[in-house]
Amino acid sequence: MVATIETERFSRAFATASGELPGHGNAEIARLREAAMARFASTGLPNRRDEGWRYTDLRRLERLDPAGLAGRVDGEAAGALPESLASLDAERIVFVDSRYEAALSAHGALPKGARLDVLSAHLGNGCDDADSILGPGLAEWNGAGQEGLAALNTAMTRDGVLLELPPGMKLDRPILVVHLLSGEAGAIHPRNVLRIGAGAEAALVEAFVGRPGGAGWTNTVLEGSIEPGGRVRHVAMIRHGANAVHTGRMTMEVGRGANYAAQAITLGGRVVRNEFVVRLSGPGAECGLSGGALAHGRRHVDHTTEITHAAPHTESEQVFRNVADDNARTVFQGRVVVEPDAQKTNARQSSRSLLLSPGAEAQNKPELRIFADDVKCSHGATVGDLDRDALFYLRARGIDEAEARALLTRAFVADLLTSLPVEAARAAVEEAVDDWLRRTANEDG
Amino acid sequence: MLSIRDLRAEVDGKDILNGISLDLAAGEVHAVMGPNGSGKSTLSYVLAGRDGYEVTGGSVTYDGRDLFGMEVEERAVAGIFLAFQYPVEIPGVSNLTFLKTAVNAIRKARGETELDALDFLKLARAKASALEMSDALLQRAVNEGFSGGEKKRNEIFQMAMLEPRLAILDETDSGLDIDALKTVADGVNALRSPDRAMLVITHYQRLLDYIVPDRVHVLSAGRIVKSGDAGLARELEAQGYAAFAGETASA
After folding, report:
1. From CA B67, how far away is CA B44, in angstroms rounded?
2. Which of A321, A392, B2, B177 is least surrounded, with the fewest CB atoms within 10 Å of its CB?
3. Which residues of A touch B90 (CB under 8 A)?
């Protein structure tokens, strides 16, 4: 693709920022960032002509100002952390506008052999593994061979965490990584990297939070790998402001007998796209993905997954639940690829959407690409509104209509709370769901 | 307490109730009997306020208020309770959460303080054990996977918790074996009181052996064709509904 005006804006932003990005003095890092920017320039932002982006439109990003694109967020002083995150029992690392914020963070030393680095520091100090952090990893891989947003993240990323566990190490407490966007506008490209050794276990909670009416763009990447027998449990909570854009690409390479359980739940943001890209690369690898959105006003939330079964006896399960009120739109695209070697694969997928008003819309697009013959793959997708009989039953017991609808909506997303992979995140997720259910209608269009 | 005057209603454009009049005073239990299609369930849904049941004539006053000016939940809060013929399954909402929300909605409307979790649980356990309902049944999603008998017991349990002033029991006996019928009837009888009125809707006389009514009304083609004391139910059982079909409300 020829560079469009749009990609030129990003190239200029990169030129402005490159002299101050973490690791800018390191020739290898500079080279990796340049290469990533070149990849982005050749593909540009995804648009609706791309098969995987038919339902989601990023043109809103055109409104971001150039200074914001360069990562200069004109924010207020570091805001307070939402109480439910502050009280979450975890090692807590907080970034405000993609800069590590010690005052809001609280993390102790991990056991010897484990590494939990702030990425900006890691890239700055004689970094010798830049290629594995900023190389075109799984995040830039997909069936079509292009992923511009992840490349842009690689070029522009300022901060995030690197978690590395040696074989056999099991962390007691989850790691909570919070990315706060404090300003009205601006763009951040957080990047978190997980390297989990054989038989090691970690739990990660990512929270992306913005100001209530905030705009701006968060373009995030998670690059992870789990060695044989390892285990990662992961929750990503998206609670942005009403005008924010969020694009997230969460990738995991799952080795032999390893297990990845993840949930992405979106409760805020004007346009949100969460992608899971999982590769089950060793025999017996398993993954369970769940997630969904509670969306109102004119919000648009897209959860897109791609699970590749690349080895025999691999298993995947997906549970997605979307709720759309007012004129909101939700999208679920779930692709399962079973490669020729992946015999005895078992893949299940369930996606359900609840429409709470006549103006709401939901898209469900399951997609199976099966190249092996001895596999079990199933999917089920439904779209519906609240059960009128159940609504009447509740009201006939004195529960007013608004509360009855809230009870039934909460019941609809109960499957997500049941399959929440990180127990420590339960209170925060439940609070976010309850806040949504109690929202004043259309408060931010 | 409840005064129904020449009530007419239709469902899907079809006349179902064709002028029902009935007065129910506090402390009374009236039975409404009739064959399938006579309008029994329509009467109960119209009183509870279900969508799709359109009132085309007549009036209903409850404690002096125009019933049709009240929303479904307002009626419930004002003390009207419908025990459903087909209780609705609600996956994902536990029986206890549901009932606590309902109890507190009603308490709040009556100006009473809301029950906290512990007080509520104590009360619920006490009332449930009287109906031989297990703790497990209380924890499960509302009616989900309940047997027919468990669903009906759950209705009476809700009634015991909500302490309505007017209870409408819609074919509470259907689908119950004799033991379950006795348990449910005992539960209902325990709630009879001078301040409370009950409208017991049933196809069969059997239930009325256990819940003995003060008055019995026979419904046919959307009209009350005969009214009498408890003896009328036995008369019906002996003669069948056909014998009453031609009679008029003044009979």
Report:
1. 13
2. B177
3. 387, 390, 393-394, 408, 411
